[in-house]
Design goal:
Layout lengths: L1 H40 L3 H26 L4 E2 L6 H8 L14 E4 L9 E11 L2 E4 L8 E4 L3 E8 L7 E11 L13 E2 L8 H12 L2 E2 L2 E2 L4 H11 L6 E12 L11 E5 L8 E6 L6 E4 L5 E5 L15 E4 L3 E3 L3 E8 L5 E11 L3 E3 L5 E5 L12 E5 L6 E6 L22 E7 L4 E6 L4 E6 L5 E5 L15 E3 L10 E5 L5 E5 L20 E8 L4 E8 L14 E6 L2 E12 L2 E2 L11 E11 L2 E8 L3 E7 L13 E4 L8 E4 L9 H6 L3 E4 L3 E8 L5 E7 L2 E7 L18 E2 L2 E9 L6 E8 L2 E10 L2
Parallel strand pairs: 1-48, 19-39, 28-32
Antiparallel strand pairs: 2-3, 3-6, 4-5, 4-7, 7-11, 8-11, 9-10, 12-37, 13-14, 13-38, 14-15, 16-18, 17-18, 18-19, 20-21, 21-22, 22-23, 24-25, 25-26, 26-27, 29-30, 30-31, 31-32, 33-34, 34-35, 34-36, 36-37, 40-44, 41-42, 42-46, 43-44, 43-47, 45-46, 47-48
Helix pairs in contact: 4-5
Length: about 750
């Protein structure tokens, strides 16, 4: 028993010890909690000051961040409305409510860009199909178009004469209400058809033969015929229609004084259609225009629009935007518009747009563009395919990876503009891309899928041995190579057509032909790609000598078999002598001429002279494919991110605005929807950067101050302006990648100047 008791005592002792240890641990934890609580309840002197400092510091950071995000400046550069934004404002007045054919809503120049157009808006109770007729000076210049059935009618009016009271006729047939039915056969028709054996026709014949007027009385109508008429008409009462015929007058304003007046040389109207001749400009402050076969101006666009101007498959016109992306003439992209000037889509491209485009069967666009991010800083050697639905670039062709820059140089060649692609054409039969390199006197065909070279047309002189195998070998008689060519295309029969400008007619300077002895031509070549041979089968222009010589631009279109349209669009004379330079680079007393010739079976059936230079001409029916809608415009694509030269960290303390500096350098700031445009006048030795400040960081963008050695100023709209105060230059900074508010500074020769303005990049 004693042993058992001893074990129990031991057990109890161990339990007591364990319990005591647990109690001690809990007591220690409690003390720690108490001490911690006490520390927070009664902060030390150091802790209190630290907390105050922390609060102040965080508040200061937030305040500075706010000010920085807002910009140190308080003068907001307000958003400049783009063409699409303006269009939305204009369309607020485009209502049909309360307007009938008796009092239509007639809006002259509805989009403020196309003065010789109008929009007529009205409603009808029933669906009708109106026909619009714009009265011309004769039957060939009178336009007429039938619109689809609708109750709300938005009728675009094209081809008004300037400074004229134009007559517009609108006609349509509408069902006659039961209570308004008329029995007079001259105004009531059954189903719009009058058969020779019908009662209505018999009645007309009877009236003409038997009814005589005696005072105000007429002999009775033959009873049998009258009964027959009533019987015939009775089952078709619902088909009886009434013709509505209304005429309106629209007065237009005179033409701008600087718009050149055309001179009609020849017009054989018996062989001509009523289509208009649409021109795109190549000279400063000129307009996109359209003339009829009488030589009368019937349409023009006030907005700056360059390059190609043909219609898409949907009837819309595709033209350049009016916004420059890079000098001298690279535009941000393309507008899809109608002749009213209404924009249906704007396509923006990172490399911009120049010269030409081509619409594929799937609706995508192959566009002559640039790669501004390439290390060599070259231009006009890059082609992209643009998805019309998304605005995304889905294919790129870099000619620097296909051709050698130093090959085939002509007089106009420069390091940065070595190829100068001025036309784009896709031949679906061979899956080939046809490109025209003006500065290499070469037309090149490449496989669009693989980008492998198919063939090259041009003088092979000065080309490296690797490319010699691709050159087409001339066969046949009277063959001539092309020089500085434009508008290279493949016809449905597989022939190559182009405009041969004829510059110098040699790769060797010693053999150059002077402009006064030169000529330009429209040429048709037959190409055997398999045998790599070329044969000249037709030309026009050589026989007209230097008077038809255009050293740059110009166009050539096949209209139908043996039917051609030729534009020698850049005829330039200096002091009466033919020039070998574009208009923008010619000095002295300069005379300009754009000569358009239409030929049928080798006979000139139309010739029009305009005292300016034009890039291209397209012959088109103004109403072909017209389908005006009030749909909103799409903005597709992107200009991409603008890389800063440097990004500095730190506060900018200079908040004072030097107005003398801003005025002295003509500093202007323009805030567009997708970019900031900064312009100023500086000397070539100046080092200039634009600074955008936000969140303690400054993005610095270099502003190039130099005059480019242009040798092919295809359009001179944007040539640099230089005077004794310096060269006017512009920096375009895209908003892609920018967020929030930015203060704008100008760094001039190392010193930072505050413009006092900020903009929001969203």
């Amino acid at each position: 028993m004693s042993n058992t008791g001893t074990r129990n005592e031991r057990t109890e002792t161990i339990s007591d010890l364990s319990l005591k240890l647990k109690q001690q641990k809990q007591a220690k934890k409690s003390k720690i909690r108490v001490r911690l609580t006490q520390r927070f309840k009664k902060p030390t002197y150091f802790t209190a000051h630290f907390m105050v400092f922390l609060v102040v510091f965080v508040s200061l950071v937030f305040c500075l961040a706010y000010l920085s995000n807002r910009g140190e400046n308080t003068d907001l550069i307000r958003l400049s409305p783009g063409q699409i934004a303006l269009q939305k404002e204009y369309e607020k007045d485009f209502t049909s409510t309360g307007h009938t054919i008796k009092n239509p809503n007639i809006i002259l120049n509805p989009y403020k860009t196309s003065p010789l157009t109008a929009l007529i808006i009205f409603e009808t109770e029933e669906e009708v199909s109106p026909t619009v007729t714009i009265q011309g000076k004769d039957s060939k210049t009178t336009l007429s178009h039938n619109f689809v059935k609708a109750k709300k009618h938005y009728l675009p009016i094209y081809g008004l004469y300037p400074d004229t009271t134009n007559k517009i006729r609108i006609t349509y047939e509408t069902p006659v209400k039961t209570g308004e039915q008329k029995t007079n056969a001259s105004i009531a028709r059954s189903g719009n058809v009058i058969d020779e054996h019908s009662a209505a026709k018999k009645l007309e014949q009877y009236e003409s033969e038997h009814i005589t007027e005696v005072g105000n009385q007429f002999t009775p109508v033959n009873h049998e015929i009258n009964q027959e008429l009533q019987k015939e008409s009775q089952p078709n009462l619902k088909n009886i229609v009434e013709t509505i015929d209304r005429e309106f007058e629209i007065k237009t304003e005179p033409l701008p004084e600087n718009l050149p007046k055309a001179t009609l040389v020849t017009s054989d109207k018996s062989k001509l259609s009523s289509d208009f001749y649409f021109f795109s400009p190549a000279t400063k402050n000129n307009y996109m225009t359209a003339y009829d076969i009488n030589g009368d101006l019937r349409w023009y666009l006030k907005n700056t629009a360059l390059w190609e101007n043909t219609k898409l498959n949907n009837g819309h016109l595709l033209i350049s935007t009016e916004r420059l992306i890079n000098p001298p003439y690279y535009m941000t992209g393309l507008y899809e518009i109608d002749l009213l000037g209404k924009i249906y889509a704007e396509y923006s491209l990172p490399g911009g747009y120049h010269h030409d485009y081509f619409e594929l069967e799937n609706g995508n666009l192959i566009v002559a563009s640039n790669n501004f991010s390439n290390q060599n800083h070259t231009v006009e050697d890059y082609i992209v395919e643009l998805d019309r639905k998304t605005g995304q670039v889905v294919k790129r062709v870099d000619l620097q990876k296909i051709l050698k820059k130093d090959d085939g140089k002509n007089e106009n060649w420069t390091e940065y503009d070595w190829f100068h692609n001025n036309s784009v054409y896709y031949d679906k039969n061979s899956d080939s891309l046809i490109l025209s390199g003006r500065h290499q006197d070469a037309v090149i065909s490449i496989n669009y899928t693989t980008t492998d070279i198919n063939w090259i047309l041009g003088d092979p002189t000065n080309w490296s041995s690797f490319y010699q195998k691709y050159f087409l070998k001339p066969i046949g008689q009277n063959f001539e190579y092309q020089w500085s060519q434009h508008a290279a295309k493949i016809t449905p029969d597989g022939y190559l057509t182009l405009f041969d400008n004829g510059n110098n007619k040699s790769k060797t300077p010693e053999s150059y032909i002077k402009a006064s002895n030169s000529y330009s031509r429209a040429v048709v070549y037959k190409i055997d790609a398999a045998q790599r041979t070329v044969e000249q089968i037709w030309q026009y222009g050589k026989e007209r000598g230097s008077d038809f010589y255009s050293p740059y631009i110009s166009d050539f279109d096949l209209l139908s078999q043996n039917h051609y349209l030729v534009l020698s669009g850049g005829i330039v004379k200096s002091d009466g002598i033919p020039s070998n330079q574009p208009a923008g680079l010619t000095t002295g007393h300069v005379e300009l001429l754009s000569n358009t010739v239409e030929l049928l079976n080798n006979q000139v059936i139309f010739e029009l002279h305009i005292p300016t230079n034009n890039y291209r001409v397209e012959k088109m029916d103004p109403y072909a494919g017209v389908n005006y809608t009030m749909q909103g415009a799409k903005q597709l694509g992107t200009l991409d991110f603008t890389d800063p030269e440097e990004r500095k960290q730190g506060f900018i303390t200079n908040t004072e605005v030097d107005q003398d500096f801003l005025k002295r350098h003509d500093i202007t700031l323009r805030n567009e929807e997708d970019r900031l445009v900064v312009s100023g006048r500086f000397h070539r030795e100046d080092n200039v950067r634009v600074g955008l400040y936000r969140n303690f960081y400054t993005n610095l963008y270099q502003v190039p101050v130099s005059k480019h050695p242009y040798t092919a100023l295809c359009v001179d709209v944007f040539s640099e302006d230089e005077n004794q105060n310096g060269l006017m230059v512009t920096k375009y900074i895209n908003k892609d990648g920018l967020r929030g508010n930015y203060s704008v500074y100008i760094e001039y020769n190392g010193k930072l100047y505050n413009t006092g303005k900020y903009f929001n990049a969203k």
